[in-house]
Automatic annotation (TrEMBL):
InterPro entries to which the protein is assigned, alphabetical: A-amylase/branching_C (IPR006048), A-amylase_C (IPR031319), Alpha_amylase (IPR006046), GH (IPR017853), GH13_cat_dom (IPR006047), Glyco_hydro_b (IPR013780)
Domain Glycosyl hydrolase family 13 catalytic: 38-406
GO biological process: carbohydrate metabolic process
Cofactor field: chloride; Ca(2+)
Organism listed in the record: Antheraea pernyi
EC number, as in UniProt: 3.2.1.1
Catalysed transformations (reactions): Endohydrolysis of (1->4)-alpha-D-glucosidic linkages in polysaccharides containing three or more (1->4)-alpha-linked D-glucose units
Cleavable signal peptide: 1-25
The protein's name: Alpha-amylase
Amino acid sequence: MVTNMKRKMYLKLLVICAIIESIFMDHHDRTNQLPDRSTIVHLFEWKWLDIADECERFLAPKGFGGVQISPPSENVIIRLADGTRPWYERYQVMSYKLATRSGNREDFLNMTTRCNKVGVRIYADVVVNHMSGDNKENIGTGGTTADFQNYNYPGVPYSREHFHYPYCGIDDYSDVFKVRACELVGLKDLNHSLPHVRDKITDFLNDLISLGVAGFRVDAAKHMWPSDLKTIYDSLDNLNSDFGFEPKMRPYIYQEVVYSGNEPIKHSEYIPLGDVTEFRVGTELKPVFLGNNPLKWLVSWGEGWNLSPRDNVLVFIDNHDTQRTDKVLTYKTARAYKAAIAFMLAHPYGEPRVMSSFFFDKHEQGPPNDAKENIISPSINEDDTCGNGWVCEHRWRQIYQMVAFRNAVKGTDIKNWWDNGNNQIAFSRGDKGFIIFNVEGRNLNAILQTSLPKGKYCDVISGKVNDNGCTGRVINVDCEGHAEISLPENMEDMHLAIHVGKESRLPS
């Protein structure tokens, strides 16, 4: 009898311990971010040591969860007719040596060590679908050469038999075989059914894991057979516990699968392997926040818009490819862009990533660089913005304050949806956050239910909390959770947001 009672008490304690562990250890979430963090920022074309600095001085203090870096593998050097080097050279691989304009292997380890130490994870953009295209300058950023015409890449090594044959270009995206076995814009297409190719890719990814990355953005995943990718992913090591990861944590994988909703290659083929990139978030939200599609329809945002399941997608407004098209909002359409990002970060659909760019005028324009073709580091201004040719959208107050909003409302869902039947909407995230948008072209004045505790709140879009209170608008919430909201149509920003975190709630 006593033994049975002890056994029951022991089992009860095990259950309690498991519950406590699940509460405090939800950094085991698939992204491997810490429980009080969220949001990946793509520091496009940044140098590794600059990323390390940014993790310590800004990203960690502001609550960002991770950084997507540019491809770390050696790329071919491309010079355009005007002598400049384009951004897309980073996606033309010469070898898996860690040698690019962002830095070398030592710099890479410096970055992962310092960023992980302050709780910011690193996700490597990995290019494993293809090698380079033909190029008149046969030299890589690490000094490697190749024989392009004979498909010979001694830096790996790969030779002709490791590529798909017969050689063809992708001229029909309704042909699944061509999409996965032909050359994407002239880039030499690897045959992943071959053990040698899979082994070399696995070795490359495992090397990055040993150096402290938390996961991978898999470039051009759509152009590889899911069965081959599964074999590669299954062969990956657990994350390296020397960098603070718990034992048996697996790398977070999000796969670039461009899908518009009417193609034969679907997200559902890749979701069993990892998350997929949901490009339709950017294309669908552009007309909404330009006022061409009523905001009220966002009440069903997510699966209700035929997007892929919320627990399987990485979401974003723009990326390094799409920002060079007219399909999405970018820093060049700043007012609508900031509102679209705010909606993405306020809504629970998907895992968010925000873009951080350099200024560009031409599609192929590469990052700011000096006369010796070295990337120039961003300078940091007194107001936290960047200089030296860098946009640094992640340092815009309206964006990093919404990262704090997302962190504060974690674990809640949407409540108190309100709209005016057209282009004014508002909603709460449980009893922890409230946001409102006005794209109507006329003033918004309403008393709305926020569900937030009684008190004064600093609108994190128009300002921020300091020793003197709030540098922006102050919103008063009454004892029943209501607030009187005024959002004129001519404001700098078309939205406001408040939440229970220290970045918004003011002392009573």
